[in-house]
Design goal:
- The protein is mainly β and about 130 residues long.
- The protein is about 10% helix and about 45% strand.
- The strands form two sheets. Strands 2, 4, 5, 6, 9, 10 and 11 form a seven-stranded mixed sheet that branches. It has a four-stranded antiparallel sheet with strand order 1-3-8-7, with no helix packed on it.
- A hairpin with a 6-residue loop joins strand 5 and strand 6.
């Protein structure tokens, strides 16, 4: 069964950093576009950052641009989201997703995917 597994969430103080990891069976997902989404309590799920199959095309939401970095390691079957300078507004459940779509912008525009991970909680608080 094809699965996405996230890890790396936790509690961090404002200004701190976290690195999320999404593991996938590489042989099946190398050509997929991947995305990180987040959902805060009472809010809709939103696209944070997306990356294409080769890893050379990326997209970032304005709210995280300059603070978050997405990367993909096909041989290892992992997608990472490095989150720096975190603020309380970044608090949410973060989900990894994969979809057969060409455009990273389109991937991040709507919370639609072929596969979803189970989510990992990120809490930014002092």
């Amino acid at each position: 069964q094809l699965r996405l597994v996230e890890s790396g969430g936790g509690l961090v103080q404002p200004g701190g950093s976290l690195r999320l990891v999404c593991e996938y069976p590489g042989y099946a997902f190398d050509s997929y576009t991947f995305g990180w989404y987040r959902q805060a309590p009472g809010k809709e799920r939103e696209g944070v950052s997306c990356i294409n199959g080769s890893g050379f095309s990326t997209y970032y939401a304005d709210s995280v641009k300059g603070r978050f970095t997405i990367s993909k390691d096909n041989p290892k079957g992992t997608v990472h989201l490095q989150m720096d300078t975190l603020t309380p507004e970044d608090t949410a459940v973060y989900y990894c997703a994969a979809r057969r779509i060409f455009s990273v912008q389109a991937m991040c525009a709507v919370p639609k995917a072929d596969y979803w991970g189970q989510g990992t909680q990120v809490t930014v608080s002092s």
